[in-house]
């Protein structure tokens, strides 16, 4: 169309995408175009601002690699990751709530033995035992479930960020027993700042926001015939629960790490000092009948 006006442009662009064969792709692209055009009109975006935005997104891509996903970090900080999670995770009321996976998940972590520690470095921090069950929504144990955990070291860094940590430090997965029970040994998680040495850090500084995530354990649960669960368990004593930089805290996922009196667990695992315990029963939704 020649001599196209501003008022006509959006409809013309939408029409060019009308023949997209995949109906879902067509729906997404046309909605994206409508909203982006409306945004540009709403803020009266200048060409200089448009170029700054292009260069910013380019820098997000350039700093990303197989160990750092700045685009996920940007999505997290804009609240988009949590919104997608909330929409995607509309499950039955009794199911454990999910939250963001985050940019530091690594597939292929090793299996750990019952009660084995995922802390693979010398450490003065007291052990934390995470125990509980994996149940379905009727309260029956989910046999065959696998529970995977990952977290930062006490310096606030994941193993893939820190050359001083061995591969798969503070990562691992466990099999539940026939009663759906599990026993994980780790250390108390710490609060930590997300990476601020890249474009997301520039955004936080420009908007006067802090970079902190409250202390948490990442948890992923999979089982045959069940919907997978990706979630966190947050430390109830953390001061950043109400201002998590990625908006991921849900009240049902907040727990206290309780001291454990000296006894059988200390003897079994050779613990000479204090240790902590977190008990949490996870409820996941079956997609096929148990049998």
Describe, in plain words, how this protein is organized in 3D.
With about 290 residues, this protein is an alpha/beta fold. The chain has two domains: about 1-45; about 80-285, Sandwich (Protocatechuate 3,4-Dioxygenase, subunit A), CATH 2.60.130.10. The chain has seven helices and twelve strands. The protein is globular. It starts with 5 loop residues before the first helix and ends in an 8-residue tail after the last strand. The mean pLDDT is about 95.
* Number of alpha- plus pi-helical segments: 7
Radius of gyration from CA coordinates: 23 Å
CATH architecture of the largest domain: Sandwich
For the largest beta-sheet, the strand count, sense and barrel status come to: 5 strands, mixed
Structure summary:
The chain is an alpha/beta fold and 291 residues long.
Attribute tags:
291 residues; 5-stranded mixed β-sheet; alpha/beta; 7 helices; Protocatechuate 3,4-Dioxygenase, subunit A; 2 domains; globular
Summarize the topology.
Layout: H1 6-16, H2 23-43, H3 47-63, H4 70-77, H5 80-88, E1 127-135, E2 146-150, E3 171-175, E4 181-187, E5 192-193, H6 199-206, E6 212-213, E7 216-222, E8 229-235, E9 254-255, E10 258-259, H7 264-269, E11 276-279, E12 282-283
Parallel strand pairs: 1-11, 1-12, 8-9
Antiparallel strand pairs: 1-4, 2-3, 2-7, 5-6, 7-8, 10-11
């Amino acid at each position: 169309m020649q001599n196209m006006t501003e008022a006509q442009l959006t409809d013309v662009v939408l029409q060019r995408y009308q023949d997209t064969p995949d109906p879902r792709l067509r729906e997404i692209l046309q909605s994206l175009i409508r909203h982006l055009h409306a945004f540009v009109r709403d803020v009266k975006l200048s060409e200089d601002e448009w170029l700054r935005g292009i260069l910013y997104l380019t820098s997000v891509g350039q700093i990303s690699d197989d160990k750092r996903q700045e685009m996920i970090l940007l999505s997290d900080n804009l609240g988009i990751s949590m919104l997608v999670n909330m929409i995607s995770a509309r499950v039955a009321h009794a199911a454990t709530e999910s939250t963001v996976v985050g940019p530091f998940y690594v597939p292929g972590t090793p299996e750990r033995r019952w009660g084995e520690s995922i802390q693979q470095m010398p450490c003065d921090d007291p052990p934390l035992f995470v125990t509980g069950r994996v149940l379905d929504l009727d309260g029956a144990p989910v046999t065959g479930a696998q529970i995977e955990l990952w977290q930062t070291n006490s310096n606030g860094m994941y193993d893939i960020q820190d050359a001083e940590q061995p591969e798969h430090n503070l990562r691992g997965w466990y099999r539940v027993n026939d009663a759906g029970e599990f026993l994980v040994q780790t250390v108390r998680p710490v609060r930590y700042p997300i990476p601020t040495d890249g474009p997301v850090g520039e955004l936080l500084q420009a908007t006067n926001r802090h970079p902190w995530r409250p202390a948490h354990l990442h948890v992923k649960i999979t089982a045959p015939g069940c919907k997978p669960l990706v979630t966190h368990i947050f430390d109830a004593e953390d001061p950043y629960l109400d201002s998590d930089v990625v908006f991921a805290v849900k009240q049902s996922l907040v727990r206290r790490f309780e001291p454990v009196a000296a006894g059988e667990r200390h003897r079994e695992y050779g613990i000479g000092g204090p240790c902590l315990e977190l008990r949490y029963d996870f409820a996941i939704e079956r997609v096929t009948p148990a049998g």
